[in-house]
Specification:
The complex is a heterodimer of chains A (328) and B (433). Chain A is α/β, with parallel strands linked by helices and 328 residues long. In chain A, 38% of the residues lie in helices and 14% in strands. Chain A contains eleven helices and nine strands. The chains are: A alpha/beta (328), B alpha/beta (433).
Chain lengths: 328, 433
């Protein structure tokens, strides 16, 4: 394995440009965000065609490495890669050598030996994607690391809002729920700051992180003033018994649940999924026409196509680039 | 109470160094002669008596350092450190004496375990080592260790370092019983119900990165509790690795009220803040965690004014593979013996934040006083425990820099000023650059 890598390094021209990763929203500039949203829009228009597959990443290998249960994120990355004609390899920790106690470093290096172009990783621990970026030659995309970051979620949410409101700057979003344990909230907060969205965090006192530089309140009443109410999942699997962040899920639902009477008519509601109906979100809200949950899932596909394309090519995608790709 | 291998005393004349011993009131360029390991003369143009002559021109000769807080990982994790490698690292860092913590595997909670360490140190230790024994059996916080027997077997003090003594009642019993031994309790102050699962100081950085917070108050409520119990029982205590402004305030108040409390601070808490955690480098993960600038400034103030008398490295070696994991999965702790003086000289003395004499005092007399050890000094008749320092020379810290078996240093890749040119410990040369 080592010798193969050495040969390849020898053949590489001197001073290659730095590998592009997407590890955290904090690595992005406002221009990066605009470019990614624009690329996603281009891909979305391509998806209206009868044949939805683009040859753009033909011959590239995208490895999905998932250490946590995930339906929408893993399926969305896999489909995104396939729509761009990349080869995909999806590894889930259950049933893999991770079960046998293999360290993340060793797993990453093993997969790295196949020379993947991109490794998409979800992991329960903060900084796992950074470790993979350090020990492999692949472009690394963070699909969620612990409570830290979930950058593609934030991008797809921006994309969804832009589709809905035709603008981002000046919008006001209330993010409601378990902010403390939410990588989505942390990613959104940074993304909102980049594009000029005002954000109010709402939740029980112990679930609002102390020291966070943000507008925070325990008063659910304020959500009525927002353009979008973004409901976070009440992460029961992270609420250890007896930690007493809230007395009970029942009291949480009564006090902070997003119900029809707490919303303005027509007010838009988003949720990263999976939803706990009846806990953080009332089923009537979840099923209403103002809930953008399915739009978010569709946005997820095109945003992940855009991200895979962007880390590999590093440039804006235009009609000409797409056409050229199709000719090739 | 301190053990090292037998070596013949050196016969050396250090010629023309700037001799600095703040306690003895010396700061001048003179010669120092050592006969059979004992300082025999201090003065100008000393006879060499056919001794080895060491050219000290341009160098500083000071009392060698004492580190009250080291993890030698023996018994149990000799892959990470041994008494031999740890004391070689200490010698390379300019230390003549170190105190080893008992949180090994097994825990040093019996005379048999302690006896084996004492015996090994007598064979292997390059510099003097003192061993602390546990306060409670297995450091489980449930039953006191046999402190009288442990003291007879050579324990220098008692500590459950690594874990707090959770029960206030147990702490009180430990204070009462340890009084018959004349040995101090050295306390790791952490209220686990507040710090639980915390990896990073609770503040803006932890909130932004998503780490579970380990708040300052988790330390300071325990500091307050232990100071109150020490005052009530009239017993001295030593507070390990303080990290927060609240703890410093409590200590200052208690000392003013006459409580016999001493305390230590680590180089990393004096130099770094939680801001560096943004790198997600497991080598900046320690317990207690790096805190805010306010805390760092308070610790430095307390070190300057003597509220905190000792600098301790809390040298905590870890195997490479244990630190080569995501931040949250990594164990707490960093190495420090071989970089302590240089980093504090570079980051505090050179910018004018701490006088060199104060740094030397807090690395020698301070910790010696706290644990009732002989103070390394430059005085005629004293055993030679000296360090020769080159304060002009720079060096780059890299993985090859270390005598320690581990290299989990937060200073890898940094350039430091200040090189230990020679360490004389217990009268013999223990290290030479």
């Amino acid at each position: 394995m080592t010798s193969i890598r050495l040969v390849r390094d020898d053949l590489r021209p001197p001073g290659p440009p730095p590998r592009r990763h997407l590890l955290s929203v904090s690595d992005l500039t406002r221009d990066d965000v605009q470019r990614l949203l624009g690329t996603a829009r281009t891909f979305e228009s391509a998806l209206d065609r009868e044949v939805k597959k683009l040859p753009t990443l033909k011959g590239r290998l995208v490895v999905n490495l998932f250490y946590e249960a995930s339906t929408r994120t893993s399926s969305s990355f896999e489909l995104a890669a396939k729509r761009l004609s990349a080869d995909t390899l999806t590894i889930k920790s259950a049933g893999s050598s991770v079960d046998k106690g293999e360290s993340l470093k060793d797993t990453a290096q093993t997969l790295g030996a196949y020379d993947p172009d991109v490794i998409v990783i979800r992991h329960p621990q903060i900084g796992a994607p950074q470790l993979v970026a350090r020990v492999t030659d692949a472009h690394v995309v963070n699909a969620g690391d612990g409570k830290h970051q979930h950058p593609t979620q934030a991008l797809l949410d921006l994309y969804t809002m832009q589709q809905e409101f035709d603008r981002l700057e000046g919008l006001h979003v209330a993010v409601v729920g378990d902010v403390l344990h939410s990588r989505v909230a942390r990613s959104l907060l940074q993304a909102f700051a980049l594009v000029g969205i005002r954000c109010t965090l709402v939740g029980p006192p112990a679930l609002l992180p102390r020291g966070l530089d943000a507008e925070m309140t325990t008063d659910i009443g304020v959500i009525r003033d927002a353009d979008v109410v973004y409901v976070l999942r009440m992460q029961q699997e992270r609420m250890e018994a007896g930690s007493n962040y809230v007395p009970s899920l029942r009291e949480y639902a009564a006090r902070w649940g997003v119900t029809p009477d707490r919303l303005r008519p027509g007010q838009k509601v988003m949720h990263p999924g999976p939803m706990n109906r009846g806990v953080e979100i009332d089923p009537r809200v979840a099923d209403s026409v103002d809930a953008l949950v399915e739009t978010q899932v569709r946005s997820g596909l095109v945003i992940r196509m855009a991200v895979l394309y962007d880390v590999l090519t590093g440039g804006p995608v235009g009609v000409r680039a797409l056409a050229a790709a199709e000719v090739a | 109470m301190l053990y090292l291998k037998d070596r013949p005393g050196a016969n050396i004349v250090v010629r023309g160094a700037r001799v600095l011993d703040p306690v003895e009131g010396i700061d001048s360029v003179v010669d120092v002669r050592i006969d059979a390991g004992v300082i025999s003369a201090i003065g100008e143009q000393l006879d060499t008596n056919e001794h080895r002559v060491v050219d000290g021109a341009g160098l500083v000769l000071a009392p060698a350092f004492v580190d009250p807080h080291v993890h030698l990982r023996t018994p149990g994790r000799e892959d990470e450190e041994t008494i031999a490698s740890g004391t070689q690292a200490a010698a390379a860092g300019g230390f003549c004496a170190i105190l080893a913590m008992p949180n090994t595997d097994p825990v040093v909670d019996s005379a048999a375990t302690l006896g084996a360490l004492v015996e090994t140190a007598g064979r292997e230790a390059e510099v003097a080592v003192g061993f602390l024994a546990a306060i409670t059996r297995g450091q489980r916080g449930e039953e006191l260790t046999e402190m009288a027997e442990l003291a007879d077997a050579g324990a220098v003090a008692f500590s459950d370092d690594g874990v707090p003594v959770a029960s206030a009642g147990m702490m009180r019993r430990a204070l009462q019983y340890s009084s018959i031994t004349g040995r101090k309790l050295a306390l790791h102050c952490e209220e686990r119900s507040l710090s639980h699962d915390g990896h990073v100081h609770e503040g803006a950085v932890a909130a932004e990165l998503g780490f579970a917070g380990y708040p300052s108050v988790a330390e300071s409520v325990m500091v307050e509790r232990d100071l109150a119990l020490a005052a009530y029982e009239g017993q001295p205590i030593h507070l390990l690795h303080l990290s927060s402004v609240e703890s410093v305030t409590a200590l200052r108040r208690a000392r003013a009220a006459g409580v016999a409390a001493t305390a230590e601070v680590t180089p990393h808490h004096l130099v770094l803040t939680d801001d560096v955690v943004r790198s997600l480098d497991p080598n900046v993960k320690m317990n207690p965690p790096l805190r805010a600038e306010l805390d760092r400034a308070a610790l430095l103030d307390a070190l300057r004014d003597g509220t905190i008398e000792s600098i301790a490295t809390d040298h905590a070696p870890h195997a490479l593979h244990e630190k080569d994991v995501p931040f949250e999965a990594a164990p707490f702790g960093v190495t420090g013996l071989e970089t302590a003086f240089a980093v504090l000289y570079t980051r505090l003395v050179q910018p004018g934040l701490l006088p060199l004499a104060t740094l030397v005092e807090r690395m020698t007399a301070g910790p010696a006083r706290a644990f009732g050890l002989d103070r390394p000094c430059v005085a005629v008749g004293a055993a030679a425990n000296l360090v020769l320092l080159d304060l002009e020379r720079e060096w780059d810290v890299d993985a090859q820099s270390f005598r320690s078996r581990s290299r989990n240093s937060w200073l890898l890749g940094e350039r430091l000023t200040g090189v230990v040119a020679m360490t004389i410990a217990g009268g013999a040369v223990a290290f030479e650059a």
